[in-house]
């Protein structure tokens, strides 16, 4: 059973502390989430308290008792509560020691157990829930001892905010933000203390989970030694040199060279520019056209927005980059036809995600990528693999191109290289493209970013790779893939679901066309309902629910994640049926 321990200095003598801890009214006042606290038989209390143990917040009723009392210095604490989703029980010890100046040093320790429907996820969460409840109760007791006034609740956020959120309708978002303040493992906590299971690893990036002190310490050490220094020209720093070597080895590109950027959008633009610059350097400047795919997402800089196949992202922007063409995301034949129509002598490169990500988690058909790679070789077209999402383990291999058996000329990465602990991205450049820039007198690639090879970001990347390798998390993704797929596909029988897709540790639940026709905002409503269940997901392309949890997710958490989605879908279905009946 999870053990909870803690200690606290309180301002009053042990007698006063004991009196407050054994007074029903004072406990009700101090205990967070408490409803009723009433005296019961012996030195015990009937309690009602709201707790989030597992993905669902529940109301637990039962008993809080003191046994083996030695007032005012020691006792045994017993907790026996029950809610709709399970039971929480615990037993522990509390000691109160007088200190000079009239204070009390309080120590506590105890073991807690969760049973019932939330046992799987709840057993791992209960220690944190219990500790938070105890500490906040002691906060309340401490205020009473010091005669400090009760904290005044913060006023609700103003309807306007200085923060302009990405991909948001600010007229609706301002003042309604869900403010996340901390995270641990696969869970995050908001400003109100509510805990959520993160179904998406934020934006596909928190692969090793939240709260990794090892990465934070590596960044802190580097910041103290050298925060960073420009890598323009001949300058370098140790973390950038070391990380480039490790990424090059992992990528399997022969003698790969790594060009660092600040993130994925930067990296896509770098790859696109480098493709054109390469052809110019080898005397074929007419090869300018780049081919992308419909439904693809390649970031939001000018090149990436243009190459991406999501029309809404270009709304009102006009033509950002000329000579860009799109083809179907699953058709080798359409790509071949486009190259023939444009003329191979004019096509610089083809870019694609091994698995379409933000466009809806669309895996490739069998043999797609090997056929694409062969087609590009035949027509002398560079192949760019956008591995911003899939890189560093998301598909159960270090890179998606490894899983699908092809070797790109340029490999774009970001997100998973640091698990989001610091912004970092880059491009691994294969031997063909690097050759005119690295051999002989060389050709300049006049391109770079202020923070290319940022020392502290690279330190985060090195520590992140250490964790991935030591804990064998990439292999763990492969082990968890069948369970995630099974669980996600089980939602296929729901009346609101049209299709489910899963590969590696990512998935999408696409809602049925008929349901989206009746309610275009249905996905966003299901996302909101899932949040009420203690589950954070998001909409993909306005038609699907996004799943891409951290690699450390436990099997019961996968089941809880999909169970939370089903409950949200059930509520949405009930509301939809009720609405139709009323009309």
Structural class by sheet pairing and helices = alpha+beta
Q: Could you name the CATH homologous superfamily of the largest domain?
A: Type I PLP-dependent aspartate aminotransferase-like (Major domain)
The outline comes out as elongated
Largest beta-sheet details: 7 strands, antiparallel
Count of individual beta strands: 22
The appropriate CATH architecture of the largest domain is 3-Layer(aba) Sandwich
Strand order of the largest sheet: 1-7-6-5-4-3-2
Overview of the structural elements:
The chain has 583 residues and is an alpha+beta fold. The protein has three domains: 3-145, 2-Layer Sandwich (Alpha-D-Glucose-1,6-Bisphosphate, Chain A, domain 4), CATH 3.30.530.20; 170-208 and 473-582, Aspartate Aminotransferase, domain 1 (Alpha-Beta Complex); 213-470, Aspartate Aminotransferase, domain 2, CATH 3.40.640. Helices cover 37% and strands 24% of the residues. It has 18 helices and 22 strands. It has helices at residues 14-21, 24-30, 119-145, 170-173, 201-204, 213-225, 238-251, 264-281, 302-307, 332-342, 368-378, 400-404, 431-438, 455-470, 473-489, 513-518, 522-532, 555-582; strands at residues 3-10, 34-39, 44-52, 57-70, 74-83, 86-99, 103-115, 180-184, 187-190, 195-198, 257-261, 289-293, 324-327, 347-352, 382-386, 410-413, 425-429, 497-503, 506-511, 535-536, 539-540, 544-547. The chain has a seven-stranded antiparallel beta sheet, covered by helices on one side. A seven-stranded mixed beta sheet has the order 11-17-16-15-14-12-13, with helices on both faces. β15 (382-386), α12 and β16 form a beta-alpha-beta unit. α7 (238-251) crosses α14 (455-470). The longest helix has 28 residues, at 555-582. It starts with a strand and ends with a helix. The mean pLDDT is 90.
């Amino acid at each position: 059973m999870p053990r909870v321990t803690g200690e606290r200095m309180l301002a009053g003598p042990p007698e006063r502390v004991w009196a407050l801890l054994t007074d029903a009214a004072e406990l009700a006042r101090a205990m967070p989430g408490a409803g009723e606290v009433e005296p019961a038989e012996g030195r015990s209390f009937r309690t009602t308290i709201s707790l989030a143990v597992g993905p669902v917040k529940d109301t637990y009723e039962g008993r809080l008792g003191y046994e083996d009392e030695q007032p005012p210095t020691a006792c045994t604490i017993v907790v026996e509560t029950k809610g709709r989703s399970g039971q929480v029980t615990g037993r522990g010890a509390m000691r109160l020691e007088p200190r000079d100046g009239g204070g009390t040093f309080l120590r506590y320790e105890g073991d807690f157990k969760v049973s019932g429907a939330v046992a799987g996820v709840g057993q791992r969460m209960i220690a944190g829930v219990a500790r938070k409840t105890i500490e906040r109760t002691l906060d309340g007791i401490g205020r009473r001892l010091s005669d400090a006034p009760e904290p005044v609740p913060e006023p609700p956020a103003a309807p306007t905010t200085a923060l302009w959120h990405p991909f948001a309708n600010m007229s609706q978002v301002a003042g309604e933000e869900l403010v996340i303040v901390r995270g641990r493992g696969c869970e995050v906590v908001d400003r109100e203390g509510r805990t959520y299971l993160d179904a998406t690893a934020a934006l596909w990036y928190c692969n090793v989970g939240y709260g990794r002190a090892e990465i934070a310490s590596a960044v802190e050490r580097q910041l103290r030694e050298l925060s960073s220094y420009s890598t323009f020209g001949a300058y370098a720093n140790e973390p950038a040199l070391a990380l480039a070597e490790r990424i090059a080895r992992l990528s399997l590109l022969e003698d790969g060279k790594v060009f660092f950027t600040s993130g994925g959008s930067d990296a896509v633009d770098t790859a696109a520019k480098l493709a054109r610059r390469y052809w110019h350097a080898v005397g074929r400047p007419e090869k300018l056209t780049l081919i992308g795919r419909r439904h693809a997402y390649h970031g939001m800089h000018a090149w990436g927005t243009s190459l991406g196949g999501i029309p809404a992202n270009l709304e009102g922007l006009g033509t950002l980059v000329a000579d860009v063409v799109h083809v179907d995301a699953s058709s080798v034949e359409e790509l071949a036809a486009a190259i023939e129509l444009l003329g191979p002598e004019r096509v610089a490169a083809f870019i694609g995600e091994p698995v379409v990500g933000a466009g809806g988690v669309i895996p490739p058909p069998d043999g797609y990528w090997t056929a694409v790679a062969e087609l590009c070789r035949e027509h002398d077209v560079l192949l760019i693999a956008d591995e911003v999402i899939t890189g560093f383990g998301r598909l159960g291999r270090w890179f998606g191109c490894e899983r699908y058996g092809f070797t790109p000329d340029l490999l774009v990465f970001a997100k998973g290289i640091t698990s989001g602990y610091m912004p970092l991205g880059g491009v691994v450049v294969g031997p063909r493209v690097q050759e005119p820039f690295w051999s002989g007198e060389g050709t300049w690639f006049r391109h770079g970013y202020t923070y290319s090879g940022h020392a502290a970001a690279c330190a985060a990347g090195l520590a992140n790779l250490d964790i991935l390798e030591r804990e064998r998390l990439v292999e763990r993704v492969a082990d968890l893939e069948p369970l995630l797929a099974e669980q996600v596909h089980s939602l296929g029988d729901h009346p609101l679901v049209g299709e489910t897709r899963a590969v590696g540790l990512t998935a999408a639940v696409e809602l049925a066309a008929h349901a989206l026709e009746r309610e275009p905002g249905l996905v966003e409503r299901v996302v909101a309902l899932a949040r009420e269940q203690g589950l954070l997901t998001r909409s993909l392309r306005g038609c699907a629910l996004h799943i891409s949890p951290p690699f450390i997710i436990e099997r019961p958490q996968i089941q809880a994640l999909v169970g939370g989605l089903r409950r949200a879908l059930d509520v949405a279905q009930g509301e939809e049926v009720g609405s139709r009946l009323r009309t």
